[in-house]
Amino acid sequence: MIQGMAALVSMNGITKFFGPVKVLDQVDFSIYPGEVHILAGENGAGKSTLIKILAGAYSDYQGRIVMEDHEIRPSSPLDANRHGIAAIHQELSLIPSMSVADNLFLGHPMTRSGFVMEKAHRQSAREVLTRAGVNVSVNTFVEDLPISVQQLIEITKAIRLNARVLIMDEPSSALNAYDVETLFALVQQLKSQNRGIVYITHRLEEIHRLADRITVLRDGKLAGTALASELPEKKLIHLMVGREMEEQFPRHTMQKSSEALRVENLSVYKAGWGHRPLVDGVSLSAGRGEILGIGGLQGSGASELFLGLFGALPKRTVGRVSIEGKPVRIRSPREAISHGVALLTNDRKATGLISPMSVTANMCAASLGKLSRYGWRRPREEERMATEMGRTLQLRASSYDMEVGDLSGGNQQKVAIGKWLSISPRIMLLDEPTRGIDVGAKQEIYQLMNELTTRGISILLVTSEMPELLAMSDRIIVMHRGIITAEFSRIEATAEKVLEAAMGKINGDVGTTRKETDAHAADN
Amino acid sequence: MLQTIRRALTSSAGRAFLELLLVILLGVAFNADGAFFKVGTHRDTLRQASVYGILACGMTLVMITGGIDLSVGSILAVSSVSFSILTMHMDWPWWLAIIACLFLGSALGSMSGALVSNLKLQPFIATLALMSFARGFAKLITDGKKISTYVEQGGKVIIKQLPPVFKFIDSSILGGDVSIVSVIFLVCFLAAWVFLARHKWGRELYSIGGNEEAARLSGVPVRMAKFLAYTFSGLMCAVAGIAQAAQETQGDPVTGDGYELIVISMVAIGGTSLAGGRGGMGLTLLGILTIGYLNKILSINAVPDAGRRMITGVIIVLAVLMQKRRTK
Known about the structure:
The complex is a heterodimer.
Chain A: E1 9-18, E2 21-31, E3 36-40, H1 47-54, E4 62-67, E5 70-72, H2 77-82, E6 85-88, H3 100-104, E7 111-112, E8 115-116, H4 118-132, H5 147-160, E9 165-169, H6 177-192, E10 196-200, H7 204-210, E11 213-218, E12 221-227, H8 233-241, E13 259-268, E14 279-287, E15 291-295, H9 302-309, E16 317-323, E17 326-328, H10 333-338, E18 341-344, H11 348-352, H12 359-363, H13 368-371, H14 379-392, H15 409-421, E19 427-431, H16 439-454, E20 458-462, H17 466-472, E21 475-480, E22 483-489, H18 495-502, H19 512-523
Parallel strand pairs in A: 3-10, 3-11, 6-9, 9-10, 15-20, 15-21, 18-19, 19-20
Antiparallel strand pairs in A: 1-2, 1-4, 4-5, 7-8, 11-12, 13-14, 13-16, 16-17, 21-22
Chain B: H1 2-10, H2 12-29, H3 39-64, H4 72-89, H5 94-117, H6 123-142, E1 150-153, E2 156-159, H7 164-169, E3 172-173, E4 178-179, H8 180-198, H9 200-210, H10 212-217, H11 222-248, H12 259-270, H13 281-300, H14 305-323
Antiparallel strand pairs in B: 1-2, 3-4
Helix pairs in contact in B: 1-2, 2-13, 3-8, 3-9, 3-11, 3-12, 3-13, 4-5, 4-6, 4-11, 5-6, 5-11, 8-9, 8-11, 9-11, 12-13, 12-14
C-alpha cells in the first residue's frame, strides 16, 4: 500500500520551542493516502504540538512540511484547510448555539452576492451528513446534541472541506461503544476515499483495529515509525516508555498501617444526557501514611474521581466513602474540609488560587473559619499561620502581602499546598502536584510528601509523569476511561505494566467483573 | 522619596487619591468667585453625596464579588415611599417605620441575591429585573402619586404636620457643619468597611470575585456570601431611601431614577474592579468624594445640565483609565 506511493504530506526535521523548552526535536512524520497513521506517546510526548503545527496552530517551528513537492507553511487553521488539511481537536470547534447546518458551513459559507444561501446550506448539509452516515437533523442546535454526535459532526465538517489529510486527536474519548463503531466506520470510509488520517489515541484496542502505521514520540523526539504489523504491543509500549529510571525520588517506604480512606463503587457522571460516566464504579482504599498513586492517561477519570470524592460535583457523584472506618457523606467541599480531606487541583490558576489576593489571604482561604473568632478575622493569627506555612514550605516571596498571581509557578504551588496544610488534613488528594514547576521546587514537594506521610497523612497522587508515579507511590492503581484496570504494589510496578493498563489492557488480578461492568456501561 | 511617591501613585489608592486631588484643583481653578473656599460648599458637597454614598457601600460589596446591582435606585424609592406612608399617613412611630423599611429593603435585595446565587442568573439580569419590579412596587403602593403631608381624607384635603423624624434627619449638628445624613452615611461606611476588612464574610466576597471556582473548592460558602451581599445592598438602599424621604419631605415613587449609574461610577472610579476581587471601602470613599466634588464644582459654576452630563462622562472615562491595572 505504501511502497511506490507518494506521501500526501511529509514533515521533516520539525523542531519547536515553547520559550526555552524544546518540545519537539527533529521529528519526521509523513502521511500516505489511504492510511490510518497512529501517533502514540505518553502525555507530554509532543503529539499534540506536532499535529497542531500541521494544522496551522503554530507557525514558528523549524523544519519543512512538504506537500506534493512544494513546501507549505500552514499559518492558520484556515490556511491549513486551504491545503487540504483539517484537524478535529479534543476541544470541539463547533459553536453550540448554532444549528448543525450553520456549523458545517462556518467560515466557508455558500453565498450569493454576499448573502448566505440558507436553503442550499441545509440541502448540502443533509447530503454530506447522509454520506457520512450521521443521522441528525440539520436544524438542530449543536448544544442539544450529545457530545458523541457533536464529534461526528466535527468530522463531517472536515469531510465537507474535502480535506485530504484528516487529523483526529482522541476522537473517541467522549464516545460510547455504539458511537465508536460509527466513528470507525467513518474512518474506514475516509480511508477508502484515499484520504490520509492521523489518529491520536491512548487506547490499545483502537490501535489494533485501526492502525496501518504507527509513529511513537517520546519526550519530543521520534522514538520510531513502523507498520502496525511489525509493531506488537510489547514493543510499542517499550518504545513509548523507553527511558532509564533514575533514583531521583527519595521515597521512604512506609509501614503497614490502619485504613484511612475507603471508597466503594464511586461513580461520577457528566452533566447532560447520553454520556458515559467519567468515573465508573471505582473502589479503592488507602492506609494512614500511605501514598496511593493513580496512573492514567488523558480521560482516565482520575481528576474527576478526586472532584467527586471532594464533594465538588455533588449532584453527579454516587458511591460510599468512609474515613478511618466511619462512613461519611461529603456533599460539598466544605464538608470534605470538615472531614480533613484536602484537594490540590491540577490547575492552580483556574481552580487553585485566587490570583488577585495576597499570599496570606490565599494561605488562609480554606481555614478562615478556624482562624476567625465569632466570624471576625484575626489578621495577626492569619499572618502567623501564613509565615509558619511559608517557612515549612520554604516559600520564596518578597512579601506575604503581594498578589499570589505575581509569584513563580513553584512558589504558587507551595501557596496552594500551604492552604491545604493549614486545615491539618488527614487525607490529601494531590492532582498533578508538580505540574509546570522547576526541578528544585519538585524535589521540595517530594520531600514534603514524605514528611506528611510520616505524620500519618495519607496521600492520593494523580500524576501524568511516569517516573514520579513509580517512585513516589507505595501502591499504584491504574485507571482507563473511568474504571480501574490494574493495581500494583511498589515492587511489581513497571512503566510498561502501568502504561499497558492505562491504555485499556485489563489486568487479571483486578478481576473479570470489572470487564463486565465496562462492557455493560459502554452499552448504555 | 521619588520611589515612594511613584509606588504610592501606582497603587489603586494612590491613583484614586490623585483623581480626587485633580478634581479639587479643578475646583480651585474654577472657584466661582471664591464660593469653592466657603465651608458651606464642602458641607453641602458631603450632604449631597451622602445618599449616593450610602448606596455605594452596598454596591462596593456586590461589585467585589464580580457582580453589579442595578436595582439600588428603585429599592431606594420603595423605601422612601414606604417610610412616608407609614409615618405621614398611618402615623406609625418613627422607629417602627424605620425597622419596617429596613426589613423591606433587605427583602428586595435578598430577592436579587436569591436570583443570583441560587438560580445562577447573571447579576446584571437579576438586578435589572429587580430594578423594574421594585419601581413598579413603589408606584403600586402610592398609586403613582407623591406621598406628602397633604392627605386626602373623605374627599377633603388636610395638611398634616411633618413628622419630627423628617426634620431631624434633614438637620445638622456641630453648629450646622455636619448634616445628619452625612453621619448616617459615615455609620454605613464604617459598617461596610468593618465587614469587608475585618470579617470572614468580607474575605469570602473578595475570594468569590477573585476566582469563584477556587473559592468554592476552598470551602467558601459561595451562595450564602453572595446572597448576603445583595441583601446588604438592599439594606443600604432602605437607609438611603429614608434619608431621601427626609430630604425631599415626601415619598416620591420616581425618586432615585438613574442613581445606579452614578453609584456604579463612584465605586468604579475609586478603583473597585467591575471584574471583582479587587477594591475596598477606602477606595469607594475617594470615588464618592471625586464625583461629589465634580458635581458641586459644575453646579457652583452654573454649568448647564447638558454640559454637566457630558463632562461627567469624560471624567469617568479618564478616571477609569487611570485605574486600569498595568499588565506586566
